[in-house]
Amino acid sequence: MTTNKNNLIGRPFDDLVSFFQGIGEKKYRAKQLMDWLYHRSIFDFDSMTDLNKDLRQYLDQNYSLHIPMSTKKERSFDGTIKWMIDQGGSQAIEAVYIPEKNRGTLCVSSQIGCLIDCPFCATGHQGFNRNLSSAEIIGQVLLAKQDLQNEFKRDDLITNIVFMGMGEPLANFSETVRATKILTDPNGFNISRRRVTISTSGLVPQIIKLADHVNVSLAISLHAPFDDLRDELVPINRIHPIESLLSACWFYAKKQNLKTVTFEYTLLKNVNDLREHAKQLAKLLKNRPAKVNLIPFNKFPGVVYEPTPPDQINEFRNILLESGIMAITRTTRGDDIQAACGQLSGTVNNLAKKSLRQKLKKTLN
C-alpha cells in the first residue's frame, strides 16, 4: 500500500541526524531508528520500544516506513531468485539474488528502464521512465532480505550487493550514493565496502565525483577495446571514449586504494570476440589495477546478437591470461527465468522521446 507520507527508509545516517535534530530530538535517535530498520527488520514505529511514546506517535502520524511489494517471484533451477517489484503506475523493476557456496549476491536496480541504450541489453530496449529513490533502492534489499529470511530462517544470506540491475547507477548519482552509504554504514546493513559494487557504462565525470563520496568496488561495462566498436555497443562512448574512461578508473582506484577495477566484457559472436579484440584489451589494461569479467551473452526476445561459443571464450581468456591480465569467465545464472546478465527488463512506461543512440545519430554516422 502506498502512502503520501515521507518515507524514512533510504535516508543515510547524517540525514537522519539532521531530521531528528530538526524535530527537537537528540541525534542518537538516528542510530536507534536505523537499528530497528536494518538490523532487526522492524517497520512499525509503535514496536520501536526505545523511542518514547510521544515520538513514536509523531512519527507514525507524519512519516512512513514503506517497503515495495513483489508482484512476481521466480526461481531458477540453479537457485537464483528474481523478484518483480511494483513501482506504481503499472511499472515494475527487477532484483535478483544469486546464491553461491560462500556468498549470496543481490543485484539491484537503480532506474526504471535505462537511457544508455546498449543494443545487447534487454533493459535498454524498454526505454526509460525515471530514477529510483534511495528508499526504492534500499527497499529492494529489505524485500529480498525479508523474503529470504522467511524461507530459509536466516538473515545473513545477502553478503554482496551489486548495482547491476536495471538502469545506469551513476546517471542517478545522488540516490545511488545515498543508498550505498546505508549499505556500508555499521548503523545500516554494515556490508564491507569491497562487497558493494557500482557498475557503470562509463560516465566519466561521475566516476571522478564518486571518489569524493563513497569507497566501494567499481565495475565498468566495457564490452569493446576499440572506440569505433564501443561507439556502437555502448553509445555513451561517443561522449566519454575509452581513453578518458580508463583515466577516470585509474584515478578512482588510486584514490580509494582499490586493488582492481573490474571490466565487464560481454562476448558477442563475431562482433567483439576475435583475437585482435583480446590483444587490444590486454594492451589497454596491462600493468594496471584491472581484472576482466568475461560474460557469455544471454539472449532475449528481439536481439540480433548471438553468444560466442565456449571454446572461443576460453581462447579469448587465455590471451588475456598470457598477457598478465587477471580474467575470469562468469558462470551464467538464472537465464531460464530471464534473470541473467543483460536480461532484466521489468515493466517500463517509456517517457524518453529519443534514446541516447538517436540523440547521437549524427556522430554515429
Secondary-structure map:
Blueprint: E1 6-7, H1 13-22, H2 28-39, H3 53-62, E2 63-64, E3 70-75, E4 81-88, E5 91-99, E6 104-107, E7 111-113, E8 128-131, H4 134-152, E9 160-163, H5 173-184, E10 196-200, H6 204-210, E11 217-221, H7 227-233, H8 242-255, E12 261-267, H9 275-285, E13 290-296, H10 310-322, E14 326-329, H11 356-359, H12 361-364
Parallel strand pairs: 1-2, 6-9, 9-10, 10-11, 11-12, 12-13, 13-14
Antiparallel strand pairs: 3-4, 4-5, 5-6, 7-8
Protein name: Radical SAM core domain-containing protein
Domain Radical SAM core: 100-335
Cofactor: [4Fe-4S] cluster
Under CATH, the topology of the largest domain can be stated as TIM Barrel
Q: Please work out how many helical segments DSSP would assign.
A: 12
**Alpha carbon gap, first and last residue:** 48 Å
Strand tally: 14
Give a brief description.
With 365 residues, this protein is of the alpha/beta class. It contains twelve helices and 14 strands.
